[in-house]
Structures are given as structure tokens and as C-alpha cells.
Design goal:
By secondary structure, the chain is an alpha/beta fold. The protein has 12 helices and 13 strands. It has a 7-stranded parallel beta sheet, with helices on both faces. Strands 10-9-8-11-12-13 form a 6-stranded parallel beta sheet, with helices on both faces.
Length: 340
């Protein structure tokens, strides 16, 4: 089977691109797999990269208004590539590309979700993209997102969970700190984690970057919270920080899946997160961590884990056992069955 994966980018550290890489390198052992994208910094592994004349789809700059021109160019490029390679199946990893693939039976969309926004343009764009996808088969990553897709009229929706990479594993170390991993954006509510760290007097390490970084560092300095900003880190350092934390925290108001909680669990660490989006699907409340409804509950449960090392060890063991179901080998086999 010849399988094409399509996205605007194929870069290390970007959510959809990581999913593409993990699937492509496994499916490529048995099938001929092609990655079609505008740019990459990821070496080929059981797949072939084909460069598209395509810029990053949305940048917040004036070039975004050239969207329909980009889609016409992409449509022409894909026709030429399909004629050349004769793809059997095509997986599109960005809903924004749907305008280039209307009424194409080879197309399967991979929907990783889109966080809520107050930006009117982005709201309208998201609805337009979803309408463009709903006639095709859509594979999504949580029951929460599947519900959203069905509500907007999608007829063929399949849920296939994400996996966690092999390097995320426990080492029986507790460095006496909380950990957050993710973008520094408004809906992630990292400001609450900084206030939490101050309130319970327990160190917090933050791995990630984003538009809110300057504000968050200013807040940390103003309230004198025991918080360290690590910024971008290597894959090895990321894993080490998961392995050495006491427990994982995220105050995000939206997650389409919540891989960060699964990665923490694979390293034997419990998590605390809000009862929002797909988070209750990846944290089993009172077993692998805590699902909370407000900041007061967040403080209560974080204090409990801080004070009770035995409890966090027990929950961490539960999280490790639960993480086994999120296996990339199993995920890739599910995709293979779905594409036949």
C-alpha cells in the first residue's frame, strides 16, 4: 500500500508532526510511506520526504490572507504527485488543508482538535475547515473530539488513541518538584500553576515556550514563586524531567487528547488536571492522579501529593500501568486496519 501523509510542516516538537513521525516510521516497515510537507528538520526513517511548495498555513501575518491561493497551488501539486506515485491512501493532518482535497475518496483526515478562541476570524475558519472534512472519513484521538465532530455533522468518525514513546519510563527518582510541559498560551493557564507553586511552597519547573512567557516570568518575579523556566529542552532532558518530578500538573482549559499526562504516567508520575476536554480520558481520577473542577480543588490535591509520598508513589504506579494502553505499535496497527 502506498500511503501519503500531508501537513504544512514536518518539524520536531510540533504535535501533529510528532504523530506523523511515529506512525510513518512504523507503517513504513510494511508499506511505502511518503511525507508531503512544506518544510522539515526530521530525518527519513522508513519513509520518504517530499517537499511541497507550501508555507506554514497560519502565522498571524498578512500572508495568511493568501490562503486560497496556497490551496490552489497545493491542489495542483498533489495531482502531479498522485499521478507520479499513485497513492492508495492519503492522511491529511491539518483541517485547514481540506479546501485542496474536496470530493477525493482517497482522503482520510486526522483531527487533533483546535483550542477555543475568541478570535472571530479563527472561529469562522475552524467551522469552514470542519465542514470541508465532514464528507470524508475522519480519524480523531479522543471520545471528546469525536463528539464535537459528530455534532458538526461528520458521518464517518473513528477514534484511535495516541501512543507514548518507549523512552518514557520510570527510574524511581523523586526530585521534589512539580512539572509542567507545554506551550505558554492563555488557555494553558500556566499563571495558575505559578500561583499554586507559591501557595503550597513547592518548586515548579516549566518546560515550553510561547507568547505568554514574558508575562509569566513577570508574575513569578512579582510574587516570588519557586518557579524555574527551562524553555526548549532536548528530548533527553524532557524525559529526565518527567522521570525526576514528584508529580505533573497542568491547568489547561482545553486538551484534545492530553499526551503530556500519559507521558508523565509512563514515567511513573501521577498528574493533576482540570475536568476539561479530553483530560478525564487520560487521568483516572483518584487512581492515576486527580481530575479537579476549580483552583481550590487543585490546591487541595497538590498539597495532598506534596505531603504524602506514599500516595504519589501508589498513584504513579497506577499511572504507569494505565499508560501501557497508549502504545504506538498498537496504534499503528489500528491505522493499518482502518486504511485497508
Amino acid at each position: 500500500m502506498k500511503i501519503a501523509f500531508i501537513n504544512d510542516t514536518f518539524l520536531q516538537g510540533r504535535g501533529a508532526d510528532v504523530v506523523m513521525y511515529e506512525l510513518a516510521k512504523r507503517l513504513g516497515k510494511k508499506h511505502e510511506v511518503f511525507i508531503l510537507a512544506g518544510e522539515t528538520n526530521i530525518p527519513e526513517k522508513n519513509f520518504k520526504f517530499v517537499k511541497l511548495n507550501l508555507q506554514k498555513l497560519f502565522t498571524g501575518k498578512v500572508t495568511d490572507f493568501g490562503y486560497f491561493k496556497k490551496m490552489r497551488i497545493l491542489q495542483d501539486q498533489f495531482k502531479e504527485l498522485d499521478k507520479r506515485f499513485s497513492f492508495d491512501k492519503v492522511l491529511v493532518f491539518h483541517g485547514g488543508l481540506s479546501s485542496a482535497f474536496r470530493k477525493n475518496e482517497k482522503i482520510n483526515y486526522i483531527w487533533l482538535g483546535s483550542p477555543p478562541t475568541k478570535n472571530i476570524f479563527r472561529k469562522l475558519a475552524s467551522k469552514y475547515f470542519q465542514r470541508g472534512m465532514r464528507e470524508n472519513k475522519i480519524i480523531t484521538i479522543s471520545n471528546y473530539l469525536a463528539g464535537e465532530l459528530k455534532n458538526m455533522g461528520a458521518r464517518k468518525v473513528k477514534v484511535i488513541l495516541l501512543g507514548v514513546s518507549e523512552e518514557f519510563k520510570p527510574i524511581k527518582k523523586d526530585g521534589a518538584y512539580m512539572l509542567y510541559v507545554g506551550r505558554l498560551e492563555k488557555h494553558k493557564r500556566v499563571d495558575q500553576l505559578i500561583k499554586l507553586s507559591k501557595k503550597i511552597n513547592f518548586p515548579l519547573r516549566i518546560i515550553g515556550y510561547g507568547l505568554e512567557e514574558k508575562k509569566l516570568k513577570s508574575l513569578t518575579e512579582r510574587i516570588n514563586a519557586p518557579v524555574g523556566f527551562l524553555g526548549r529542552v532536548s528530548r533527553e532532558d524532557l524525559v529526565r524531567n518527567y522521570q525526576s518530578c514528584s508529580f505533573f500538573v497542568s491547568a489547561s482549559e482545553w486538551e484534545g487528547f492530553g499526551l503530556i499526562f500519559v507521558e508523565a504516567g509512563a514515567c511513573g508520575k501521577p498528574s493533576i488536571g482540570y475536568n476539561k476536554g479530553s483530560i478525564p480520558e487520560v487521568i483516572i481520577n483518584n487512581k492515576t492522579g486527580f481530575v479537579v473542577n476549580n483552583f481550590e480543588e487543585f490546591v487541595e490535591k497538590a498539597t495532598l501529593l506534596k505531603m504524602d509520598k506514599t500516595r504519589r508513589k501508589k498513584m504513579g504506579d497506577g499511572a504507569r500501568k494505565y499508560s501501557v494502553k497508549f502504545d504506538w505499535e498498537r496504534v499503528s496497527k489500528e491505522y493499518e486496519r482502518e486504511l485497508k
